[in-house]
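Lesson 9: reading folded outputs for more than one chain in a single document. The general rule is that every protein is listed as its sequence immediately followed by its structure tokens, and records are never interleaved. Here is the first one.
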Amino acid sequence: MNGETRLLAPLVPTRGYFPDFLTPAEGLLGMDEALCALRETPAPRLHDEISRLSTATRPLPPWIRDMAEGSSRSLGRLAGVLQRYYEAAVAPYWPRVQGRIEADRAARGRALLDGGADRLLASLPPMLRWRAPVLEADYPVDRDLHLNGRGLLLLPSYFCRRTPVTFHNSELTPVLVYPVEHQTPRLTPSAPPERCLGRLVGQTRSAILQGIGVGCTTSELARRVNVSLASASQHATVLRDAGLLVTLRQGNAVLHTLTPLGAALLRGAQLAEV
């Protein structure tokens, strides 16, 4: 992975600007779709965005300069490097990453249902502050983004830290990428399912999994499963340790949501009953 990191470093500096074409909207559909969109980036856009990279300390490598001039071969090389980096640095951890992202989405969706757009925007992390009609953000540079009637796509990100990110080009679809809450300092690979699922014996935990639905608090879970609050909390802890659910704090309460592994386990159990 060190080779891929070294190749990508000039395009994705540790701080400051990086080209918008590296994060196509098709990425919401998956890595394959994102790389396909990246390979189809128009040459004028490549030249414009790559030329914005700072070269004060070190000039860009020849293959990136060629890409800025519209080289499809260099663009294909970039796609290959990104694919290898994803497989080594992201894919092994993806179930945990996706679980955290889905937990954040559940929390935002609950805020939207409870209080509309105002409650949703007010529920965002502390580096974002909703003061109608303006959403303020702790941003690395001083800039204003005017929606002019367009919507704003909010994207929770596991790898975005401290401050949110948006496109440099204000003409692109308005997107605000913000950090999700991190409860552990270090991301570890997802444990093999056979090691975790051995703890999941008994009808109560099966009922807990089914009771979570699209997300619920510990109190709601206790009522749905008809167990005590302490019992619901204890079972939720075991399920969380097994990687089957994610818990996100919301004020004085916590919100439990299923991880992809938890949802898959539940679907498998339901199919087995048919």
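And here is the second record, again sequence then tokens.
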Amino acid sequence: MINLRSLRTFVMTAEMGGLGRACTRLNLSQPAASRQIQALEAELGVALFEHIGRGLRLTSHGEDLLQRSRQLLTLSELLTEHAQALRSGQTGTLKVGATPQIIANLIAPFLPGQRRDHPGVDVQLIEGGDSQQRTRLERGEVHLTIMPLGGGGASYRLLAPVHALAVMLKTHPLARCKVIEVSELTKHPLLLLQRGYGSRAWFDAECESAQVKPPVLVESTTAHTLTELAAVGHGIAVVPSTSVVRDTLRAVPIVHRGTSVGRWVGVCWNPRRGLPSYAKLFVDELLAHAKRAFPGSALIKRAPPLPKPSEPAT
């Protein structure tokens, strides 16, 4: 019978690229971790890693078994979570993935009431770009993600539309526009989020469609950094409408041939992974909060509406 602890050590070592960082994450000594991997290799009858200098690299057998090992660990977690849900639907750990803007401007104001009403639920927030969140959801590393809809595979509840905005000083010539075409915006120095974030992907796709190349001054992981740079006149920030925009700045929706650049976002989960009852309550209550206070709704009043996806049956 495979030892799940050894399996977890194998997966963490492969993902972290070596024993040292894996041991730190697992709170294990390197000799103990090494013994677990050796025992697993003996049990499976194949070598999982090979030594390259002072490091480790997956063998072909190891690469083949890595994804299956992840699936087995996920199933083990599902079994534990299901047992917990049977005992009590009011206690547990809920892992939620979202971008920094969503965490700061949507979830943070929602959390005090959620903690008051559900003191037994520990909400863990995992920050990252949309592509990271999609991967984490598929791997079972989070229960819920708040991310743009599309790509299939996830169940979801609709939250709200998120538009790409051009944020600049009010004295900038483009600040007088109601909306800004991509082809016009890319004539100016731009401040962009790093690749992997939804609004960056939308903007890049429309630039490619318009056959223009944006002049990029700065790429950052947070919209706040970009808007602060825009506030001192260091370019135009391209950020999602969930960002906070100070009063000294002007936020203008971005369009391509008159169509808004953006996507609807939703609260998403893996349909193969059963949601505990406290996760379902979290979704219902977050949706109610978003109807009252979704960030940036005032910034997109002049934007052409985005097509609304169909709401799935629940």
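What the second record shows: The radius of gyration is 23 Å.
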